[in-house]
Amino acid sequence: MTKNSVVATLFRFQSVFGLLAVVVAAIIFSPRKNGAILFVSADNLANVVRAVSEIGIIAVGMTFVILIGGIDLSVGAMLGLAAVGSAVLMVESDWGFLPSVLLVLVIGLVFGALQGAATAMIGIQSFIVTLAGLQIARGLARIWSDGQGVAIAYGDGPNEAPASFALLGERTFGGLVPIPVLIFAVVAVAAIVFLRVSAFSRHLYAVGGNEKAARLSGVPVVRVKVAVFAICGLLAALAGIVHAVQLNQGSPNDGIGYELDAIAAVVIGGTSLAGGRGSVAGTVAGALLLGVLNNILALNNIDSNIQLLIKGLVIVAAAALQRLRPAS
Amino acid sequence: MGGALVRMVGIGKRYGGVQACRAIDFTLGAGEVHALLGENGAGKSTLMRILSGDVTDYDGQIEIDGTPVGFSGPPDAQAAGIAMIHQELDLVPGLSVADNIFLGRELRTPLRTVDRRRMEGSARALLARSGVRLDPRRPVGELRVGEQQLVTIAKAISLDARVLIMDEPTSALTTAEVERLFDVIRELRRAGVGIVYISHRMEEIAQIADRATVLRNGEVVTSFDPRALSTAEVVEAMVGRPVQTMFTTAETDTGAEVLRVESLKLTARRPRPGRRDPDGISLTVRAGEIVGLAGLLGAGRTELLETLYGVAPRGAVEGRIFLQGKEIRPRSPRQALAHGIGLVPEDRRTSGLVLFHSILANTVVSSLPAYGRLGVIARRQERAASVGMAERMRLKFGRLQDEVGTLSGGNQQKVVFGRMLLTEPRLLLLDEPTRGVDVGAKAEIYRLLGELAGQGLGVLLASSELPELVGVCDRVVVLRDGRDVASFSTANSGEGELLAAAMGELQ
């Protein structure tokens, strides 16, 4: 391995190395209890991943959108709409678990597809389309819930959600892995595999890399865009369902600002906002990095405002490192 | 005329192995309009870039009013009274006409703020002098290309230049606008301004120029009085061979008809300035035949290829397109490819490749469904296809994973070619396939074209390089103003006829 290829590898897996660095720092600075490092306790680690699972699921979808050179600002609002939808359908409308979840997922899918169609066919920038989408989804959530949070109680009676829904918030594998974490992991692995093996992913990267060239090469650009925004909307809705089960409620104010955290995870993960370059693996590392950072700061009782400050600096540092990436 | 205003003596300039200018002597008198003629690459632009201070390392000497000068850059030349109007309009679309004219030398009020009223007044007067009625407050981006051209001319005039270099100033103007421009030129001439006028349009040169100089391969071939020579004689000087006016309808009857276009006409819903959509084009391409598309800038070559490939702007299409006898009307590249039509676009960097993606990804993107099943790529098949194509194209590369942007221009072009061939087209549309490609790669591309034609592919090749058209094509169709005006067999005719037809002399 030449020196150059070492450097190239370092940059390629920049977010993974960044994550490792933050984990090492977390271990060093972790408070200890009876000699045990609190950070690495199974409970704490499960909590770290559980805390990032919603943002993580959203960020996977966001990676797709950013890979085609777009952005989706509506995902936080979509999460709120999905959380409200799950709660209202199961608690107030007495729907079953599966129909409710399916309907909510379809709403996310269709909402995303419509946004994709608006940017691809009318040619409005996705920033603007999804800015509008954000308002619309938030408005729909308020209307659907009458502006109130809907608490979820479980049971078989009226105004109670089916107990099967509560299972989504439980733990599995001997009580070690929270189901939301499992869902995040499945989504991430599926996305990574999909981007590696599917012909569609070639089209997706081509559209993000050079839309005009992609079109002239026969890539169905409109179809790719619609599909990508649909996937992003679907995953945001899934995150909303997870959110509802974790908090036992659906509130129209859920997920405010989540889109920005998701974008931050994608950027730290090394995906280029210009499109055509990046990976879901990087995004997962980026989301975990943010999660570990939050966790270690909280463990040390550092003021949450300082946490924000540090998060901001990390984002800038990650972006700056990418500028240094050697043009291979 | 006493002493010449500009005297360039023994000008030479070499770019790598190419001698762009070779011991050129060129003079311009005060109040003279001196036309400069020559094929693409004859050295016109280089010579004028030297005069306007854009190129500073050259051999020979320039004198202005008998005093030797050496410019350090365009501002230096402007200070000496030399202004150039470039073909690419250097205007800021978002700024108003007045702001553009005074860009970088804004008029100020005593308070040092921009004096809009004075700038608009001056701009209005300047425009009026150029015979244009334009509101100086309008953003330049809203104007037609022709109007933008007039704004750059007004801007050049506002510099009070003594020497004005105009590079194809009329390429986007209407006849009426050309007339007004000529009035302005005549007025400038009376005021003693020397004007270098570069154009391909013979009738304009005969109308406005006092003297014309023809360059070929970086040398002055002849200087003459434009009213005294016929177009045929001028073309002969430009090409360097006598023009035999010989039309032939004999077509190579190798193979069946691949493409037939009948009176193709596109009326764009929203016409864009500077575009020349097909306005009644008929032509055929047979299997194994390479048909050239000739024509001046703005004759509609690219627009024809775009219409055939389904990427022209939306609008009403009249006429018919047949591919292998079946009538088609592609509405997207995807449909065109499905019919068996491939396109190698003009600018591979902006329209051909994703430069930072791998050679592999770039070669297979058009033919992906062929590898694997159910939307899953069979990596080995894909690799094999890419490797096979690279060998067939004699691509020089390291690994398939390397970024395409690291390849030389010629090899990049081969990747675009290879991608199209992997779709197994029946008809290949090529738009300036050898632009920006070195001589070696050019030869490779020509060899490949011959090979493909030998295998029964039909090729439609748009090019502005006459030697390429004559050398590579079996037959050349000449376009002018969106219409096909002539068709030659290259066995019987040469560059001269093509150029003459493109310029509008032969019918």
From TrEMBL, chain A:
Cited InterPro entries: ABC_transp_permease
Parts of the chain that traverse the membrane: 6-29, 55-83, 95-114, 173-195, 224-244, 280-300
Membrane-topology annotation of the record: Multi-pass membrane protein
Signal peptide: none
Alphabetic keyword roster: Cell membrane, Membrane, Transmembrane, Transmembrane helix
MF terms (GO), sorted A to Z: transmembrane transporter activity
Pfam annotation, one family: BPD_transp_2
UniProt keyword Nucleotide-binding, yes or no: no
Locations listed in the record: Cell membrane
Recorded GO CC terms: plasma membrane
Descriptive protein name: ABC transporter permease
Organism: Kribbella sandramycini
Taxon lineage: Bacteria, Bacillati, Actinomycetota, Actinomycetes, Propionibacteriales
Automatic annotation (TrEMBL), chain B:
Main location: membrane
Residue ranges constituting the ABC transporter domain according to the UniProt record: 6-242, 259-506
Pfam (any one): ABC_tran
Entry keyword set: ATP-binding, Cell membrane, Membrane, Nucleotide-binding, Repeat, Sugar transport, Translocase, Transport
Membrane topology: Peripheral membrane protein
GO molecular function, one term: ATP binding
Record-level GO cellular component terms: plasma membrane
Subcellular location per the Swiss-Prot or TrEMBL entry: Cell membrane
Protein name stated in the entry: Ribose transport system ATP-binding protein
Origin species: Kribbella sandramycini
